[in-house]
Amino acid sequence: MLERSIGEFSRFAVIALGTAIFGFSTGKWAWALVLGLGVYLFWVLAQQHRFNRWLANGRRGPAPTVFGIWGEIADDFYRLQRRHRREKQKLHATLRRVQDSTSALREGIVALEDDGNLAWWNPAAGQLLRLRPEDAGQPLVNFVREPGFVSYVHSREPGAQGPLTMPAPGNDSRMLQLELTRYGRDEALVIVRDITRLHNLEQMRRDFVANVSHELRTPLTVIAGYLETLDGSGQAPQTWTRPMAQMREQTARMTALVNDLLLLARLETSERETGREKVSVNELMERVAQEARSFSGGRHEISVDCRRESILIGDATELHSAFANLVLNAVKYSPAGGPVELRWWEDGRGGHFSVRDSGIGIDPIHIPRLTERFYRVDAGRSRDSGGTGLGLAIVKHVLLRHGAEMTVDSSPGRGSTFTLHFPARRLVATSPA
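The line above is the sequence of Phosphate regulon sensor protein PhoR; the predicted structure tokens follow.
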């Protein structure tokens, strides 16, 4: 900047010196001064005019050859233009590589602008959602009209709900999984996956389990009937007493397993968010506690803490199954004389049911897998207690159908606390008991 000022001052000094010499030789100082300033001003305006004309023409080509201060400005401007052009080319190359890489993906990717309008999508998304180039700029919900997807897109926190599974537009035999992630101000990214094969395999598994479980009920009923007849007739040989007792025990265990499998299959295949019964939490807890006392045979101290008359909206049978599974598990894994505490409370987030035991506890590495079918922390101990390994899986599906969730607080040797959290919309306002 200092060099430019010195250069411009030198040019002005040359013109001033020429003006002084001309004025001294002619004796007309005023005219000489006007002429000198006019020449300088005309020269500066001419350089500015050339530079402005280059700007007005869209800055095509190199900057014009101008002199003086405008020449230096033109040189700086041209250097900035070249740097901007290089950065723009680099950005275009990066964008082209990103588009090429996303085009090769099997998963569909859809970029949404304000109000969920289509900004860009890769070929896989166009094929899965049947999008065409002329659809750009229109809302995605105009082409994917599934009600569940519409509410999913318009929700404030779609990520909290997890991925959405739905049939493909125009092709019910193809199943898609869509996951929406918001970023920026009003922008979003939708990942679309074809899960038809996984969905069909899962459906085959469910059908197989349900059919086999249903077919097993008849032979188990026949076996149990004959065992009961033989036991009641008193005609069985004395040496059959122990084998028949073991057969009755194993038949009862198989029957419980079949019943749990059928219940789990029904929970998985039926619609979610069903059941609009008004269930008294107090009565439900007392009934479950009484069942637990009968199961315990007086070996445990089972207490109930429910300080207000609470009403829960849902399916009474399913809620009873979830509560009972947690309480009976607490009795099974607690030592004789150990306390089992049932508690219900409400706050601004909803209603909460907890079961606290004094059992052996659970290592934290097992907690994420507790709701898997047939998963056992201690296989030998679980078999001795007569469990089927499906109790917590049933609890999980009951909670999914009621919009609730479960948390587990446990550590080895310190017992466990299982807590069910029900949303506030599932509660009916009542007065304190």
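Note on the example: The mean pLDDT is 79. The CA atoms of residues 253 and 386 lie 7 Å apart.
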